[in-house]
Amino acid sequence: MKNQICKTEDNRYEIWGTTPFDVTKRIEEEGCRCLSHTLLWNPKPKFFDYKQLKEIREKLPNWLSENASDFSKQDKEEFIQELARMTDGELLQKLIYQYSFFRTSQYEEIYVFILKIANIQAYCINYNEVYSNYNNKDIYPEGDEFYDRLKKYYPIIENEAWAENEFGDSGIIPVNNKSNKQPTSKFLLEN
């Protein structure tokens, strides 16, 4: 049944981050849905802003070179040109929200989008709500490597191994490239 995996014995709902967070109001009033003990689906995710989209465009070609075995130098050049031709709106349409997770606070929701690229999927992570507290280092545990490596307005792009390591099978989005639509680009697939 929907949301039962997160239901506690006292009829509340909890999602686990660094600590358990009560998400009863999120589920009952905001229409969120429990996907696993650690993942929540939000009907109103926060999308990337234009600064983050710019960073995604710059980071994706190198990420793909490192994560796709059959991605040549020529493919990389063509992919850079393809990204340059796309508007922000077109790129946003290809970034599909999958789930949210939490780290140090239930008020800092971290949104995970996927971008289908040929036979691989990029997990593009939106830290918008974390950024809003970025200048308040006191909310982060002392020596937190996450804080030290997170740069403001820098979307982090991960692969399937990251999702499996963080969330187990519940975090992995199966690759499904079957579509009746004609492809509109060589690399970025329709959803």
Strand order of the largest sheet: 5-6-7-8
End-to-end CA span: 27 Å
> What is the residue-mean pLDDT, rounded to a whole number?
85
Please give the number of β-strands.
8
Provide an overview of this structure.
This protein has helices at residues 24-30, 50-67, 73-85, 88-94, 128-131, 145-149, 160-167; strands at residues 14-16, 20-22, 33-34, 40-41, 96-102, 109-117, 120-126, 156-158. With 191 residues, it is of the alpha+beta class. The protein folds into two domains: 4-41, no CATH class; 50-171, no CATH class. The mean pLDDT is 85. The strands form three sheets. Strands 5-6-7-8 form a four-stranded antiparallel β-sheet. The chain has seven helices and eight strands, in the order ββαββαααβββααβα. Helix content is 32%, strand content 19%. α2 (50-67) runs antiparallel to α3 (73-85).
What attributes characterize this protein structure?
191 residues, alpha+beta, four-stranded antiparallel β-sheet, two-stranded antiparallel sheet, 7 helices, 8 strands, 19% strand
